[in-house]
Design brief:
By secondary structure, this protein is an alpha/beta fold. It is built from 10 helices and 14 strands. Helices cover about 35% and strands about 30% of the residues. Helix 2 crosses helix 3 and helix 2 packs parallel to helix 4.
């Protein structure tokens, strides 16, 4: 288990991370989110042992993170950090050697991963000759070459087309099922919702939202109702508790204050609407919660 307990980090007088705590168990994919400058990168660096917390502790399976355990950690950075004049083979041998692997272990694992990511023909090509998407694949491979116990993914889908996003998703899920602890960070909230049951959203170094995604959505209270029918939209807007009604080409999206408003909307639709083919109540998206909560905190 990764245990982050009350970590705080100052750079001089600047407070970058403020008493942050969370746990990631084997097989869990944990979301660590926030706007730029929220403290995520500093947190990642402390987890990897590159920075010492000013206060608090970080342990992996009960042990402080130092060079004796960093071979068990993989990290995919948001910015590409490849040595582009090297071939894919040489780049992965370099990273694998840093992680304590033998050359045979590296080549065997590299051969397997290149095949899985459908770029076997690039093993002996210089990285600078690869497309941005294929460079991202190589960077991901270097992060998981050692089959890490703890994997940190910072914007892993950057520069990928939808097909290759699916390849990455399959590998992330495979590693989770094999027991890896994964910290997932992205500005694309729909990607976070695909993977993460637990998360923390940071702002100015401190958590403003934390817990299980299901509980967070329940606490947020606001819901969306999608209606496909023929009706006077003014009737929906007049209902107490309806926040807004957005008219789309073939349906209405009704944002409501909480679950108690659902019955009132349903009664109006049942009485006044014609040709009703859809009435679906959905929880708010993580993106809506993020924008609402982080915006609210910014205004304070």
């Amino acid at each position: 288990m990764l245990k982050v307990n009350g970590i705080t980090k100052y750079y001089g007088d600047f407070l970058a991370v403020d008493h942050l705590s969370f746990e990631v168990k084997p097989g869990e994919i944990f979301g660590l989110l926030g706007v730029n400058g929220a403290g995520k990168t500093t947190t990642f660096r402390m987890i990897m042992g590159l920075l010492e917390p000013t206060e608090g502790t970080i342990t992996l399976d009960g042990k402080p993170i130092d060079y004796s355990v960093t071979d068990q950690i993989g990290f995919l950075t948001e910015e590409r950090s490849l040595l582009t004049k090297l071939t894919v083979r040489d780049q992965c041998i370099y990273y694998g050697t840093l992680k304590g692997m033998t050359q045979k272990q590296i080549i065997d694992r590299l051969t397997e991963l290149l095949k899985r990511f459908e770029i076997s023909e690039y093993m002996d090509k210089p990285i600078k000759q690869l497309s941005k998407g294929n460079q991202q694949k190589v960077q991901f491979i270097t992060a998981i070459i050692n089959e890490p116990k703890l994997l940190i993914l910072d914007e892993p889908f950057s520069g990928l087309d939808p097909f290759n996003v699916e390849l990455f998703k399959e590998e992330i899920k495979r590693m989770s099922e094999a027991g890896s602890m994964i910290i997932f960070s992205s500005h694309r909230m729909e990607h976070v919702e695909l993977f993460c049951k637990k998360l923390v959203i940071m702002l100015h170094g401190k958590p403003v939202i934390e817990g299980y995604l299901h509980d967070i959505k329940e606490q947020f209270r606001k819901k969306n109702i999608f209606i496909r029918a023929e009706m006077d939209v003014k009737l929906l807007k007049e209902i107490d508790g309806v926040i807004s009604v957005e008219e789309r080409p073939d349906e209405y999206e009704v944002k409501i204050r909480d679950n108690q408003v659902v019955d009132a909307v349903f009664k109006i639709v049942a009485k006044k609407a014609k040709n009703v083919t859809k009435f679906v109540v959905e929880e708010p998206t993580l993106n809506e919660i993020f924008v609402a909560k982080v915006g609210e905190e910014y205004d304070k």
